[in-house]
Design brief:
With 680 residues, this protein is α+β, with helices and mostly antiparallel strands. 50% of the residues lie in helices and 8% in strands. The protein folds into two domains: 380 residues, Collagenase (Catalytic Domain) (3-Layer(aba) Sandwich), CATH 3.40.390; 199 residues, Neutral endopeptidase , domain2 (Neutral endopeptidase, domain 2). The strands form five sheets. Strands 1-10-11-9 form a four-stranded mixed sheet, covered by helices on one side. It has a four-stranded mixed sheet with strand order 5-6-8-7. Strands 2-3 form a two-stranded antiparallel sheet.
Length: 680
């Protein structure tokens, strides 16, 4: 069971999987937590490949653990957090506090998830009642009612729904409906014919067959069922927008009256559908109308037997990782091995701490920050945020391509950023959740029902801008355009991104770049379409907007030129927003660094000048290597460029980097000054 789907417009710093491995030991000099100088490959010219120069000896020697899809500089961060959470969960599981305490809730869910003997004995018994309900469905109308009942239990199927700010009236919440219904990573997997994609499809079809056989279906019927499920999914996928198309906020905003939807899609019967979903409203945002038009059509044309087969698989898949080991292993064969290249399943505790974080995130987060995150770190990071905000303002006012009126509006938006650091000011109440240590699936269903009710209760009500989308232990950060906020959970506020004992060059090259990245998201090709109040509203002059779009095309062209794997290129259009944020982030962080005493100095530490340390900190923060399977999936579906190019792309256009490392014409990263990309 996963947490209720977050708003699609949250723009995060990274794919979490990049931080699923151990960090290297660090060198300390004069009480300063320093660069990993032992990993610098001085045989490489910095201007030829700065990623290799900064990390080369690590890249040559680092091994990817069999349980992981990659290795990266996030090893130490992730392992420290995992170890801390494991301690918290074990202590909570042994706690004797009263039954409604957060320790009992968190500890109880963890204990239920760790009762391997009971889970193994039960097999798929916990979901048999739901599978029998599917078997008993009498017609497609009843089938749709069952689907909505699943949704209200936190088991979304066919209906993609979340509740968030109305993008053109950001002070009020609205129910949003997005495309759903497929099992492969995205719609293009159903239509591409290259060998790598066909291999993934074959593994997915085998996974479908396996789940049917594990729930009592004979091999021949299971194969037939897999064909049915895949064919139905492919029809749904044909109505999906591509990942690049999904990046357009304007086309994703389609506010419609429920009465009109009811008339246009009578089989879906939107009025009754929303009643069944406990959503009380007269208008919703149907982000992807073509999907729901297609679903309305298929509900009429596809036989009930096929829908039953489809639901049987997706329900089993939804719970597979929480059932007996044969289901867990089947899921791992496809999701772990095929999609991510993992060789070995993670230990049970490591899989299940994530389950607690997903389902009782604020309760676990509260226990985490009480023990491991202090106000001193929060204050120091806030100081960094304020310094970067000042640096960004100065950059905006000095732009040579934007007129004064647009500059004033950009600065006004910058100054209305909500800044969230470490953890929320108020915590979620999970008192309605019933955790039974002897019933893992039942406990998950209670979590799902509670989360669903919490979300739909917000429909048509004022937005609460104190809410967070990520939990405190998360190693990530995000910008939310409708809140106009930048958010930095406690998890990312540690070395190598941040350390209170590190010098400014290290912190500004690390967390400073992260902060600048999130700030720039407010002004990337998507974020720039929202005004200072979080409304999807144009605030640009016509001329400035045209210039801005032209600069965006430069970004797309640059990243399209990077070949990552075989003949697989970065998709510059898919990654445009993240690449723009990286380019802006490093520039803003550097300007803020130059305001510090160290930034104005030239004293070397560990043999490197402050400027060199800044850029090396940046590059070593993204130290990473990934399995081909995971890298291929990232290129196909993820809006973030691979780590190497998150270093290359921004630095190729940043003149202070050229000066710091004497980058010259003829070096592979050299770009003529007139061709360097300057946006923010």
């Amino acid at each position: 069971m996963s947490k209720y789907s977050p708003a699609a417009w949250i723009i995060s710093l990274m794919a979490i999987s990049l931080f699923a491995c151990k960090n290297s030991p660090q060198t300390n000099t004069s009480q300063v937590r320093g660069l990993s100088v032992q990993y610098i490959d001085s045989s490489v010219r910095p201007g030829d490949d700065f990623f290799q120069y900064a990390n080369g000896k690590w890249l040559d020697t680092a091994t990817i653990l069999p349980t992981e899809s990659g290795a990266s500089s996030g090893l130490e961060m992730q392992n420290i957090i995992k170890s801390r959470i494991k301690t918290i969960l074990e202590e909570a599981a042994a706690s004797t506090k009263k039954s409604d305490s957060i320790e009992q809730q968190v500890g109880g869910l963890y204990a239920a998830s760790m009762d391997s003997a009971k889970i193994e004995k039960l097999g798929y018994e916990p979901i048999k009642p739901l599978l029998k309900n599917i078997d008993s469905l009498k017609d497609n109308k009843e089938m749709l009612q069952f689907v909505t009942a699943l949704c209200t239990s936190g088991i979304p199927m066919l209906i993609g729904q979340y509740v968030g700010s109305d993008e053109k009236n950001s002070a009020k919440n609205i129910a949003v409906y997005y495309q759903a219904g497929i099992g492969l990573p995205d719609r293009d997997y159903y239509f591409k014919t290259d060998a790598a994609t066909l291999s993934v499809v074959a593994a997915y079809q085998q996974y479908i067959r396996t789940l049917f056989m594990l729930t009592g279906t004979d091999s021949a019927t299971a194969a037939k069922n897999a064909t049915t499920v895949y064919a139905l999914e492919k029809q749904l996928a044909a109505s999906h927008r591509t990942n690049v198309e999904l990046r357009d906020p304007q086309s994703n905003y389609n506010k419609m009256a429920v009465a009109d939807l009811d008339a246009k899609m009578p089989t879906l019967a939107w009025k009754q559908l929303l009643i069944n979903l406990n959503v009380k409203t007269d208008s919703v945002n149907v982000s992807h109308p073509t999907y729901y038009t297609k679903l309305n059509e298929l509900l009429k044309s596809v036989p009930l037997a096929d829908w039953k087969t489809y639901l049987h698989f997706h329900l089993t898949d939804r719970f597979a990782n929480h059932l007996s080991s044969n289901f867990v292993n089947a899921s791992f064969e496809y999701n772990g091995k095929t999609l991510n290249g993992q060789k070995k399943l993670k230990e049970r505790w490591e899989r299940n701490y994530v389950v607690v974080d997903e389902n009782l995130g604020d309760a676990l987060g509260q226990l985490y920050v009480n023990k491991y995150f202090g106000e001193e770190a929060k204050k120091k990071v806030l100081d960094l945020v304020n310094n970067l905000q000042a640096a960004f303002e100065k950059r905006i006012t000095q732009l040579d391509w934007m007129n004064d009126n647009t500059k004033q509006k950009a600065v006004a938006k910058l100054h209305t950023f909500i800044k969230k650091i470490g953890f929320p000011n108020k915590w979620r109440d999970y008192s309605k959740v019933v955790i039974d240590r002897n019933d893992f699936i039942g406990s998950l269903l209670s979590c799902g029902k509670n989360e669903y009710a919490y979300q739909v209760n917000k429909v048509d009500k004022p937005v609460d801008k104190t809410e967070w989308t990520m939990t405190p232990p998360t190693i990530n950060a995000y910008y939310n355009p409708t809140f106009n906020e930048i958010v930095f959970p406690a998890g990312i506020l540690q070395f190598p991104f941040f350390d209170a004992n590190s010098d400014d060059a290290m912190n500004y090259g690390g967390i400073g770049m992260v902060i600048g990245h999130e700030m720039t998201h407010g002004f990337d090709d998507q974020g720039a379409q929202y005004d200072k109040d979080g409304n999807l509203k144009n605030w640009w002059s016509k001329e400035d907007l045209e210039k801005f779009k032209a600069k965006g095309e430069q970004v797309i062209k640059l990243y399209n030129g990077f070949t990552v794997l075989d003949t697989l290129h970065i998709n510059g259009s898919l990654t445009q927003g993240e690449n723009t944020a990286d380019i802006g982030g490093i520039a803003i962080a550097y300007d803020a660094f130059k305001m510090t005493a160290q930034g104005k100095d030239t004293t070397k530490i560990q043999g490197y000048t402050p400027d060199q340390r800044f850029f090396l900190s940046y590059a070593q923060g993204w130290r990473s290597k990934r399995r081909d399977e995971a890298l291929r999936q990232q290129i196909n579906t993820n809006p973030h460029s691979p780590a190497k190019y998150r270093v290359w792309g921004p630095l190729m256009s940043f003149t202070p980097f050229y000066n710091a490392f004497n980058v010259k014409e003829g070096d592979k990263m050299f770009v003529a000054e007139k061709d360097r990309i300057h946006i923010w």
